[in-house]
Amino acid sequence: IVGATGMLADAVRARLHFAPGERFSGDALDRTQTELYAAGLFSSVRVDANREGTATAIPVKVTVSRGELNDLRVGGGGGVDPLTYFIRGRLQYSRQAFLTPLTSFVFDARPELAFDTDLCGFSFSCAEFRGRVLARLTQQDLLFTNVKGDVEVGVEYLRLEAYTRTGPRAALGLTAPLWQRKLQLRVGWQYAYWFFTHVYIDPGTASSLGFGTDTPNSVGAYTATLILDLRDKPIEPTRGVYAELRGAKGTPFAGGSFDYLEVTPEARAFYTLLGTTAGARVRIGRITGDVPVSERFFAGGVSSHRGFSPRRLSPADPVTHLVIGGAELLETSFELRHGLGSPWGIDLGGVVFLDGGDVTSRVGELDVGHLHWAAGGGLRWLSPIGPVGLDIAYRLTRTGPGEPEAGTHFNFLLAVGEAF
User: Fold this and answer.
1) Which of 185, 189, 330 is nearest to 249 (CA)?
2) Please, are residues 375 and 396 in contact by the beta-carbon 8 Å criterion?
3) N or C terminus of the chain with fewer C-beta within 10 Å?
4) 3-state DSSP call for residue 92?
5) CA–CA separation, 106 and 40 (whole Å)
6) Which residues have C-beta within 8 Å of that of residue 341, sequence separation ≥ 6?
7) CB–CB of 346/383 below 8 Å?
8) What end-to-end distance do the CA atoms of the chain give, in Å?
9) How many angstroms from the chain centroid is the CA of residue 58?
10) Do the beta carbons of residue 129 and residue 159 sit within 8 Å?
11) Of the candidates 202, 120, 217, which has an alpha carbon nearest to the alpha carbon of residue 165?
């Protein structure tokens, strides 16, 4: 082993898929290299076998490099939907080998200014500030190989449709592979203490949801996520399936004042025939018990339901008509993706889709035969960082009075990456 000593060399040895005395296998060398890259500890990995000569034992040389231990990234950008424009910034500092050779530290700050086009256009006098600051410690090989532990603390200030929320948050997590890296389990604990500095909906509605300017929320929960990933690649998959099951149990034993159970399963499938990839996705969410307002479901947007702006498919306050989220959710999408060649030297692709879904105030109210449906298509530039393009959706059902975004049929979305 070259490029690693001590604890780091032990981490390399623990990921070798071969041992002295075993029959030579090129596949074992490939799996070793993949495993070492996947650990996220090294910027470069080489696994070389010297098969020259007549010796019965083949020497194998593993060469790793850590790269720079310190990394600082500064960036900015913007976003747009039919109702809001965003200006965003980001500052991220990361440090490898922070406490031990297998410990990493990340500091992440994300400020944002949002402009409501209906209220003030681009005037800074009424721009809404949003932002969060997080710090995270991650320990690789915690107790066992490939078991990852993390600790996260932060503070958040967020102006949403119905309220402005601010407060500290913390989380602990443990991630372990159950079957190679195809099946993984994560268990953890999360806690947040939210202050509501402004409430924009009817006081009676806010009181019924358990929050208000004089009613902070203490939300603690134990969490678990099981992920099965059998796709050929995580970005732009062409075949395979992906499934995950997320659960959270809010309880006073986790430090909160709400007792609730949240279960959110999701499944995706992909298949390619004659250069066209068909994709399907379904996601279901249910929260029972005493539901915190911060945990309620919203739908809409490029990775949810493309017939609506982000978060706009949701139950609303009957007085102010501002969205407040729901306790039950269903999202489903069907897509056909096809490459369009390279006119003018630019790789292009196209997509057609059908999205359906709904969010209801209470569990048991959702009617799968009466969903919001939207159909549309989009054009993609298959850039080096992934697909970038524009989607246009047309709502087919439920556009009348009393519905979310009533009277609106068309929705335009900037797509960065595929919807799922």
Assistant:
1) 189
2) yes
3) N
4) strand
5) 14
6) 347, 348
7) no
8) 39
9) 44
10) yes
11) 217
Mean pLDDT (whole number) for 50-54: 79
Reference 358, options 348, 368, 349, 350; nearest CA is 368
Integer Cα distance of 356 and 374 in angstroms: 6
Q: Write out pLDDT tens, residues 279-304.
A: 999 999 999 999 999 999 999 999 99
Selection from 218, 220, 150 nearest residue 187 by Cα = 150
Q: Is 54's pLDDT higher than 90? A: no
Q: Say which residue the tokens 């424009």 belong to.
A: 85
Number of neighbouring beta carbons within 10 Å of residue 42: 19
Given this model, what pLDDT does residue 82 score? Answer: 59
Secondary structure of residue 206 in the 3-state scheme: helix
Q: How far is CA 160 from CA 83, 310, 357, 402, in A?
A: 13, 12, 22, 21
Is 106 in contact with 93 (CB distance < 8 Å)? Answer: yes
How many C-beta atoms surround the C-beta of residue 145 within 10 A? 16
Structure tokens at 108: 């992440």
**pTM tops 0.85:** yes
> d(Cα 358, Cα 147) in Å, to the nearest integer?
37
For residues 322 and 161, the answer to whether their CB atoms sit within 8 Å is yes
CB 158: neighbour CB atoms within 10 A?
A: 17
Q: How far is CA 74 from the centre of its chain?
A: 21
* 3-state percent helix, strand, coil for the chain, nearest multiple of 5: 10, 55, 35
